[in-house]
Specification:
Rossmann fold; four-stranded parallel β-sheet; about 10% strand; globular; Helical_ferredxn; Cys_rich_dom; repeat; EC 1.1.99.14
Length: about 450
């Protein structure tokens, strides 16, 4: 029997939503196992902000019973996309696919009907299309930030609260930006970095966009750690943004084009593995096969790409041990999972194994370490208050561990936890990427 969406073909967006999501959405049995896993349901207390609630709204919108923009857009936009619900689901509902398809249809309608797009959405789309896919532009921003910090202009800007006047959320995050590395110390694209000692594998390194522009020192240390465990490291010159931010904002076609560019860039490297050090990027890379499913020219190539995609922690455990030089570590270490590393890539044991191996370190598991910190890509910028409510609760769990070092595996999570340290008044604590911890323990210059 045909439903309302099929009976009204003139409503192209309802029909498209039906085509992309209805079968998957019908897999949900509304059991509620996802509710305890959902950070927005816990913080907002509304069924519409839970996975099963959002899925039900998607079904209703696909049946033409509710309006995509008035009734569905906000609940979908307020989802963090952490995908913890997929792990909790007893019937394996592909929530991530439903979520991204819904965002895509909503975004397409907003683009076609300009009056439904806010100024903020238009600015966001322009930035995602005109900045993130362009490595030179991002490096220019990174270099400008280095100069901004080096000259002390950042201190004056904070004193005058200049960034706060533009955006309160951006002002908060500007305060905790890590020191950007000098342009002279940056690694070079197209270069090959030889293994230390016997070569065990040849790998190609995915640098990411935010990591390359703002945290290139972590990328540099990643390369050095790979060298220390016997990997020859190649940096593909033609690589681009992974496309995760685009996919999460409903810009699916743009995300696919970025995926194709990266597949081509890494195929030509001849590497055995493609390594990344950002949970969000890695999740996108390992799902290129899903994004390009049904495209004859790319489907098999995407499958081979995803089979070779690895997180840095997987490689260091498999090819280790690391040659530690530092005999003692100051204080307790705790770990905050990257949602996409844990829930999408299925990597949770390796980071903990590495942290427990650091000489002199005492590792203490944090309560709720597997729950989202509410960074969510750019979620903490566009939904600052909602994000901070979840973060503040998270920091209470951090305090309970008495940790001096809070470790993450994703740049967004790292910035979020740095802000959490400041908001919670943990003066003697610091937030670090796991690569920073391991590099420090191995005596690698930061």
């Amino acid at each position: 029997m045909k439903n309302n969406a099929v009976c009204h073909p003139e409503h192209q967006y309802v029909s498209l939503l039906h085509e992309l999501t209805y079968e998957a959405a019908n897999m949900c049995v509304q059991c509620g196992y996802c509710l305890p896993a959902c950070p927005t349901y816990e913080s907002m207390g509304k069924e519409s902000q839970s996975p099963r609630g959002r899925i039900n709204l998607v079904k209703m919108a696909a049946e033409g019973k509710i309006d995509l923009q008035k009734d569905l857009a906000e609940p979908i936009d307020l989802c963090l996309g952490c995908r913890a619900c997929e792990v909790a689901c007893p019937v394996s509902v592909p929530y991530g696919e439903i979520y991204e398809a819904a965002r895509s249809v909503i975004a397409q309608q907003q683009k076609e009907e300009e009056n439904k797009s806010s100024v903020g959405v238009k600015i966001r789309d322009k930035v995602l299309n005109n900045v993130f896919p362009h490595r030179k532009r991002l490096r220019l921003i990174g270099n400008a930030t280095w100069l901004y910090q080096k000259t002390g202009a950042n201190k004056l800007a904070r004193k005058l609260k200049l960034v706060h006047k533009v955006s309160e959320s951006m002002g908060q995050f500007e305060k905790i930006l890590p020191n950007v590395e000098s342009p002279l110390k940056r690694y070079k694209y197209g270069e090959i970095y030889p293994a230390d000692g016997e070569k065990k594998a040849t790998v190609a390194f995915f640098t990411g966009c935010v990591m390359d522009a703002m945290m290139s020192n972590i990328n540099r240390m990643t390369i050095e750690l790979l060298q220390k465990v016997g990997c020859k490291v190649f940096i593909p010159k033609a690589q681009s943004c992974c496309g995760a931010l685009h996919a999460h904002q409903g810009m699916i076609q743009e995300a696919k084009e970025l995926a194709k560019a990266n597949i081509e860039a890494f195929e030509s490297s001849g590497a055995a593995y493609f390594i990344n050090n950002a949970g969000g990027c890695g999740a996108m890379l390992c799902e290129y096969d899903k994004h390009l499913k049904g495209e004859p020219e790319w489907e098999e190539r995407a499958r081979r790409f995803t089979e070779k995609s690895r997180d840095i922690t997987e490689m260091l455990v498999e090819y280790g041990p690391l040659p530690y030089k530092k005999e003692e570590w100051d204080g307790i270490i705790t770990y905050q999972d990257s949602c996409h590393l844990r829930n999408v890539q299925g990597v949770s044991i390796q980071p903990r194994e590495l942290l427990r191996s650091v000489p002199g370190a005492e590792f203490v598991e944090m309560k709720g370490s597997d729950r989202c910190c509410a960074s969510g890509g750019i979620y903490n910028l566009i939904h600052f208050d909602e994000s901070m409510k979840i973060l503040d609760d998270k920091m209470e769990n951090v305090k309970a561990t008495k940790a001096k070092t809070i470790v993450t595996t994703n740049p967004g999570c790292l910035l979020q936890m740095k802000l959490g340290v400041e908001r919670s008044g943990l003066e003697n604590a610091r937030a670090l990427h796991i690569v920073e911890v391991l590099a420090e323990a191995c005596g690698i210059e930061s």
